[in-house]
Amino acid sequence: MPSKTGTLTLIACLSACNVAFRFILAGGPPDIKPVAFLVIVGGIVAGPLAGFGAGFLSMTLSDLTSPFGAGVWTMESSVCMGIIGLIAGFVWSKSLSFNRWRLAITGFTLTAFFDISTSVIDAILYSYPWFPAVLALYIPFMPGNQSPYPFGFIHELTTAVLLGTIGPPLIQQVRKVYR
What we know:
mainly alpha; Arp2/3 complex 21 kDa subunit ARPC3
């Protein structure tokens, strides 16, 4: 069993990487970010509570240090990303081997949960219809949606590809150091 210091170190490292990646990739294509990927890895390696901590801290710190600043959305996105790490920890933390397809599908599903739940919460908080907000994640050029870019699908696909390709070896390497 790893020490509490080791767990806190892992949470801090994953959170710092996520904050850096959100800034580095901010000018690139939207939603090509490995945040959910690293949060899921944290939950798998260190368990549900560490996964929640990595997700919550990643989103909170990146919003607090962002030029846009923190707002009402910070708490919702932080809690939802934390829930992704929590679920990943419950589902995968005891597994010794990983099927790339199952990891990819789980990552896609958990990231879809994040995107949909934050869209619905935003719609409720800012008093606009939630169903078009969710559809706008996946349908480019939808009436009322100014973006030709399927933000949700790209976010989920990025997480799935990362988990399916470099996920298993990264998890094994981090586990060797962590345990």
